[in-house]
Amino acid sequence: MKKLIVTGSSGLIGSEVVKSFCAKGWKVFGIDNNMRADFFGEAGDTRWNQGRLIAAFSNFKHIELDIRDRSGVLETIKNIRPDAIVHTAAQPSHDLAASRPFDDFDTNAVGTLNLLEACRQTSKEIIFVHMSTNKVYGDSPNRLDLVEQDSRWDYADPDDYNGITENHTIDQSKHSLFGASKVAADVMVQEYGRYFDMSTCCLRGGCLTGPNHSGVELHGFLSYLIKCNLEQKKYFIFGYKGKQVRDNIHSQDVCSFIEAFIENPRQGEVYNIGGGRENSISILEAFKLIESISGIEMIFEYKDQNRMGDHICYISNLTKMRSHYPNWNITLNLQDTFEQIHAAWQTRSLLQAK
Known about the structure:
This protein is of the alpha/beta class. It has helices at residues 12-23, 35-40, 47-56, 70-80, 94-99, 101-122, 176-195, 221-231, 251-263, 283-294, 319-324, 334-353; strands at residues 3-7, 27-31, 60-63, 84-87, 127-133, 146-148, 153-155, 200-205, 207-209, 235-238, 245-250, 269-273, 280-282, 300-303, 313-314.
């Protein structure tokens, strides 16, 4: 039986990976210590998802471990000797990183190094998939020529229509401390692939979303927006007239790409992974879509000051992914994704009310 380790296994992408590989008959070990609750409070707690996975899959084993624990990580990987590791654990917030910089860097950068080195010491044959972020590009995408439309910002140059490629600079821009810690991890994952001839890749995610996201104001754009609509809670827009654009990809489509990479791994690769042009949406456009689904008018307040280092318009160019893995593609559109997230929040609200 093949073995997989998933870090951040109770989170959005981690839990989707657990579900998929358990269904394929792999023995899956989930490393998670619910740091999201420490970072974001009760609203970020993922124990509910951990319990769901344990109940659903007999071939899943939860391991309570902090990836900052170097000796614990090494011992765990040596004992399990997995065929692959999918590393999704992270501190994911710009704002929180500024107030807790050591926790941010130790989790994102040092934690990733702990895992990579444990893999190298155990077996260089272990495939390593790292969930990076589009924030490694800092705010440099904002330097592209943009045009303001009725409900969104967009790229002015037709050559940029399909979005940001992997060749876009990650240097000399404002990243936020979170972005900087993820750059360190991203480059280290590439280096272990190239320097030690290991099968590694960095997936530079746009907005990753889905029904199992515990979205909060500081992280989880669509999930939190839809939750605010359902609960009739005020949503705060930070700058750019609410026309800032993100491309959103469902966790199921992220997982299917991870499967494709593990089946045919490469060394030291990077891929921009997001919903692409077809699944891009602004905050104002997202308001209209969720209102059409829920029948509830969005309550919001505009704040003129944008978040530091925030992207005005970010769309992932998926050309490289599709050329390397032509059998992979987006399968869930924005309508499907919004409806699933809305239904999931309704279910959770009912369970909490009992």
